[in-house]
Write a structure and sequence with these properties.
This protein has 78 residues and is an all-alpha fold. The chain has a domain of 37 residues. The chain has 3 helices and no strands. The longest helix is centred in the C-terminal third of the chain and has 35 residues.
Length: 78
């Protein structure tokens, strides 16, 4: 069971994470934003968003693979 201060720390962390997810994120550089605003059909925006998601997946896959490998190694030693 968590102590009082640990509960408040965990609650504070949870609130910060949730509030960070609620704020809109505008991550394009100035040139990308200009291209996206000038395109009337929206195809460039769709392509850039798909590219961002595609590039974002690989770090998570690598971290997951390393975590799984560490888990298997630690489990086999015990």
């Amino acid at each position: 069971m968590l102590r009082g201060s640990a509960k408040w720390g965990l609650l504070t962390l949870l609130i910060l994470l949730v509030s960070a997810q609620l704020s809109p994120a505008f991550g394009q550089c100035a040139m990308c934003r200009a291209v996206l605003e000038s395109d009337a059909s929206g195809q460039a925006a769709k392509g850039i968003n798909n590219g961002i998601v595609y590039l974002m997946i690989f770090p998570y896959l690598l971290v997951g693979a390393v975590g799984y490998a560490v888990y298997k190694i630690r489990r086999s030693k015990s």
